[in-house]
Design brief:
single chain, mainly alpha, all-alpha NTP pyrophosphatase fold
């Protein structure tokens, strides 16, 4: 995955949104953390992995991937706001299930919120990438879906979304 490219695309989108909405002087970190948590919940809802009471199948892999990259947008944006870029540090991790990995990501978001350190940011990013792997996505699929959704987000700004 070309992580520098993703940061560059996210920076362009963030600058456009902040300029169009007059947010250049506003600290948006707390809002972005909450947005990330909401997106994570939407992703979990599409996978339906926790819905032990239901027999309805998960959404399509395409829809789940779209929700996944929505969260990635906010992780990249948080890194830009805090001056952090993911260096790719990941230890080998084996999770028994997507449920366990969702919980690890929620915990990592909270740790980052409590202490916005580079180490906590790297941990959050790594946990999110592990979640993507747990959901069956390749780095190529994630990068392609991210760039497509980034274009959609620019188009939404053109339409005063």
């Amino acid at each position: 995955m070309n992580i520098p490219l993703l940061y560059s695309l996210q920076r362009q989108l963030d600058e456009r949104i902040e300029t169009q909405h007059g947010l250049q002087q506003e600290n948006l970190v707390d809002k972005k953390v909450l947005a990330l948590l909401v997106e994570l919940g939407e992703l979990a809802n599409e996978t339906r992995c926790f819905k032990f009471w239901s027999v309805k199948p998960p959404a399509s892999q395409e829809k789940i991937l779209e929700e996944y990259v929505d969260g990635l947008h906010f992780i990249l944006s948080l890194g830009l706001d805090c001056g952090f870029t993911f260096g790719g540090n990941r230890s080998q991790k084996l999770c028994s299930s997507p449920i366990e990995q969702f919980l690890c990501v929620y915990q990592a978001v909270n740790q980052f919120y409590e202490a916005k350190s580079f180490e906590n940011y790297e941990h959050l990013f790594a946990e999110y990438l592990y979640l993507g792997e747990q959901l069956g996505f390749s780095t190529e699929q994630i990068e392609r879906a991210y760039t497509q959704k980034n274009e959609v987000n620019h188009e939404r700004q053109n339409q005063n979304y």
